[in-house]
Amino acid sequence: MDDLLADFLTESKEGLQALDAALLGLEKTPGDSRLVSEAFRIVHTIKGTCGFLGLSRLEAVAHAAENLLGHWRDGTLAVTAGGITAILSALDRIRLILTSLETAGREPEGDDTSLVALLDAAIRGEAEAGPAGTPAAQPEPAADPLPGAQPAGPQTIRVAVEILEDLMTLVSELVLTRNQLLQLARAEENSAFAVPLQRLSQITSDLQDGVMKTRMQPIGTAWSKLPRLVRDLSHELGKRIELDMRGAETELDRQVLELIKDPLTHMVRNSADHGLETPEARRAAGKPETGRILLHAYHEGGHIVMELADDGRGLDTQRIRQKVVAQGLATEAELAAMSPADIHRFIFRPGFSTAAAVTSVSGRGVGMDVVKTNIERIGGTVDVRSEQGRGTRFVVKIPLTLAIAAALIVEAGGERFAIPQTGVLELVRIGAEQADGPRLERLGESPVMRLRDRLLPLIPLAGLLRLGEEAAEPRFVVVTQVGAQIFGIVVDRVFDTEEIVVKPVAPILRHVTMFSGNTILGDGSVIMILDPAGIARATGLGAEAAPDAASEHAVARSGGSGRRTALLLFRAGSTAPCAVPLALVARLEELEAGRIERAGDRMLVQYRGGLMPVLPLPGVVPAGDGRQPVLVFGEGERAFGLMVEEILDVVEEELRLDDAGLRPGFLGSGVVAGRVTDLLDAAYWLRQGGTDWFSPAARAADGARILVVEDSAFFRNLIVPTLTAAGHQVSTVANGREALRLRDAGERFDAILSDIEMPEMDGLALAAAIRAGGPWADLPIVALTGRASPDDIARGREAGFTDYIGKYDREALLVSLAECLRANAA
Amino acid sequence: MPQATLTRTATEAADMVLTLTVAGQLCGVPVLSVRDVLGEQAITRIPLAPPEIAGSLNLRGRIVTALDLRRRLGLPPRDPGRPAMSVVVEVGGELYSLLADQVGEVLALNPAERAPNPPTLQPAWRDLSLGVQRLGGSLLVLLDVGRLLEIEA
User: Fold this and answer.
1) Can you give the pLDDT at residue A527?
2) More confident residue, B152 or A701
3) Per the count of CB atoms within 10 A, which of A625, A818, B62, B84 is most buried?
4) pLDDT at residue number A325
């Protein structure tokens, strides 16, 4: 039997019992309007549902009964004994049909005309006059073929959610007690309790599974209202929409289910309203007139993945860009650094709606941000993929249950904590015993760790939670991901993973945002559950600001990670700190001051088997003795050092440059980590570093002529020094059109690096134009982008790009370029 | 000792208190809010919590937040050797454990013998007291459980 029908039967049976009682009460006190209303409501509900389920016979009977009850309710007709009898016969008929539905799965054959006539007669006030009508209707039920067929017992019973919750609590407690007993028994060999305890343990586990199952419901229950919604929307909007639902049987915890209902409804609305086009527009675009919305749910690890896709027009990247700029959420230059996917993610920003017209369906500015907030509140994530003209796909990932989660148990400062395993990427052991293994290093005050060429910010847990002194030697780093941000949590010890029952913390502790809940471990002790997102926020690492943060700054911070740059902060000369993108810096060194030698007016230091020129930044007095901090740019032969006073920190921040107060060697200033900070112009200092840098004689043998197509001055300033330092000859233009002008002017290059998003002519168009023919047709073209998703890369390759590189990835850029040049030369 | 007549009608129960001692002072909490009385418990510290919060403990599978009455009332800490008693109360559906030095008995109080807070009562106590009850030769402070839990974050 179908679930919907089963639910309907259970509901209707309960309704009928209540109806029986109401009608009998009404016989005693015919004037009781409350009873009339209740009876009306019950019959109305049954009628409404059976219409929906296509149960025509039932609907006809219920409809006639509802009519009569409606008159009673409105007071247009007095309640009479004859009328009540007529309703009771209708009730019996309904019950009979329901029984058949339950056993045979369909409505029985039969004719209800006389019963309906009886009810209609009662409305006309004739019931009293013709009581003979009642017996006439009576024989009908008997005619229905149900002799001896034992009605199957109810397939489902309703249980108050509270009882299930209590059961869950009791089972949790039972599990804990079981665990304690097992621990005691383990201490005693050959205990007489061992065997029964084993049995108890097994039963307890089974019981736990069983109770967990009672909380699980198919996701289809959250979808049940959607077909109707889509039908109404298609009428309202004049669109043809087909709703395809797959994986409705996928089960998840009812608590989670309740919480995703609203966001889901909103997303379906959005798809129907914004996503799908009108039949005419679809026809014009060569698509079938009927638009399709696909809902697909499936399990993946400890999560449920729910995809909501439409084959509509897709997100309008251009319009989103305009809106982003208009609302001041980002500048053109920042947008230029972003991939289309990053730009699409702006739809999750508060108050962001691109709907040109506000329809009654959507576009009221309450939008995807609410959806995102609600989904994140239950520990889920939502992302969007869209292709213009092809459609939009939302991917929602939600935990299977909020109640039970796998967690890693760790210790810091003598206390134990649980870290939910969902965000944990890996565990790294650090310590002196592994000389070449990962070590905890310090940049100024901030501990960092180098892990496979990544510089990870570290957060010592004991310090963060003010648990007193950090252990002399922290031994483990829990590498954790929150959004796009990866960081390490330093702990003293790591125990096991354990399935924990998550319980909310007491209201009195809600302000401590570092914890997402607490739980009881197998040994009966209470421990706190760490919230990695809260930790990231508290330490300023959070890539995503708190959803309720309303200030412009906070809103700007919550953007895609593509615009955030890892910056090295240092002090040079003035009190204001300086910053340089970490990606540009090859190494940080503390050189012995005595090793820095003067040759004429230049300073040199023997470094890695060569001589490296070093230069003090203005205001920096080279240390007379002790150690001199130096930022090293470039590699090998081309290494070059800048002396600074002190290395302060590495932070990940969005850069907003303000050109005011420009001085040579600095690109401008911006606010970093809450302080006004000067941004170093690395290109300027490379030029200052040594005359031979840019002279032809010193050019490396593999030095190539490179054209950089990039509209943002900021990124040009990031890329050019990197290339120059690697020995290449670099020209720059601001967009695709200018690049083609160079081609037509007969300029020759060995390779082209191009941004994707640019005004006038973007990178994809440029690549296509170059590949279309002409002297540049075979040149390697490398795409530079804020972020490269597999989709972006696929599209880039289609357009003719040779490779796809992140703008901040200095290493990858040089490697890719070298490969392209080599391949092209061969 | 005024022995309460233990006919537990609702009205009388409302006037019954569980007595407890904090740094020598006799206090009372309404018996209707009390869910349990426990001996010394293993209490887990909660980092970053207000200092009055001693931690949390496990009461038959429910997590109970422990509030140190001495700290809450601005009194010196208990001697390390002396275990605290837990009076578990329910407020707003949540369980809290009030850590006291000793727990006494259940008493029916005569409302006629209740007096408002004397003006000389220390502010720390005055804010948390519903009144003072004469009890034979000694005085009992009626603690306001709701106010006890209003801790400034």
Assistant:
1) 92
2) B152
3) B84
4) 85
pLDDT of residue B85: 92
Kindly indicate the confidence band of residue B56, based on its pLDDT and cuts at 50, 70 and 90. Answer: very high
- Percent above pLDDT 70 for chain B: 90
Considering only CB atoms, which chain B residues are within 8 Å of A465?
47-48
> Across chain A, how many H-helices and E-strands are there?
26, 34
Cβ of A170 within 8 Å of Cβ of B65? The answer is no
Contact in structure between A339 and A756 (CB atoms under 8 Å): yes
Residue B11 domain-assigned (yes or no): no
Predicted confidence at residue B27, as pLDDT, reads 92
Burial of B93-121, coded b for 16+ CB within 10 Å and e otherwise, reads: ebbbbbbbbebbeebbbeeeeeeebeeee
Any idea what the CATH number is for the domain that residue B133 is in? Answer: 2.40.50.180
Chain B, nearest residue to A463 by Cα: B47
Distances (CA, A) of A757 to A316, A342, A658, A720, A796: 14, 12, 23, 18, 12
Q: Which residue has the tokens 């009791």?
A: A170
| Cβ contact A508–B62 (<8 Å) | no
**Buried/exposed A213-226: b ≥16 CB within 10 Å, e otherwise:** eebbbbbbbbbbeb
Residue with tokens 């700054």: A553
Domain-embedded: residue B52: yes
Choose between A441 and B73: higher pLDDT: B73
Write down the mean pLDDT value for chain A.
77
DSSP bridge partners of A296 = A246, A307
In the prediction, which pLDDT does A586 show?
Answer: 73
A112-145 burial: b if 16+ Cβ within 10 Å, else e: bebbbebbebbbeeebeeeeebbeebeebbeeee
Does B153 fall in a domain? Answer: no
Is the CB of A524 inside 8 Å of chain B's CB atoms? yes
Which pLDDT belongs to residue B103?
Answer: 92
Tokens 């208990």, residue located: B78
Residues of B in contact with A172 (CB under 8 A): 61
Contact residues, chain B, for A520 at CB < 8 Å: 58, 61, 63
Q: Which of A508, A510, A525, A528 to mutate to test the interface with B (most CBs of B within 10 A)?
A: A508
Tokens of A352: 């962001």
Mention every residue, 6+ apart, whose C-beta is less than 8 A from residue B115.
Answer: B131, B132, B133, B134
Locate all alpha helices (DSSP H) within A216-347, ordered by sequence. Answer: 220-223, 226-237, 254-270, 279-284, 317-326, 332-336, 340-344
Test A467 with B153 for CB contact under 8 angstroms: no
Instruction: Please tell me the predicted confidence (pLDDT) of residue A378.
Output: 73
> Residue B72: which domain range?
17-147
Question: Is B44's CB within 8 Å of A508's CB?
Answer: no
A229 touches chain B (CB under 8 A): no
Contact A169/B at CB under 8 A:
yes
- Which parts of chain A sit beneath pLDDT 50? 127-149, 356-365, 542-563, 691-701
**Quick check: B149 contacting A, CB < 8 Å?**
yes
Residues A289, A239 contacting (CB under 8 angstroms): no
Distance from CA of B84 to the nearest CA of A (A): 18
Q: Determine the pLDDT at residue A354.
A: 53
Give the pairing type, strands A291-300 and A303-310.
antiparallel
Minimal Cβ distance to B63: which of A415, A503, A507? A503
Alpha helices (H) in A471-561, listed in sequence order:
532-538, 552-557
| pLDDT value at residue A376 | 74
| Segment B66-70 mean pLDDT | 93
CB distance A251 to A215 below 8 Å: no
Reference A684, options A584, A588, A806; nearest CA is: A584
A467 touches chain B (CB under 8 A): yes
The answer to whether the CB atoms of A527 and B153 lie below 8 A apart is no
pLDDT in tens, A614-660: 888 887 877 777 788 888 876 656 678 888 888 887 777 766 666 55
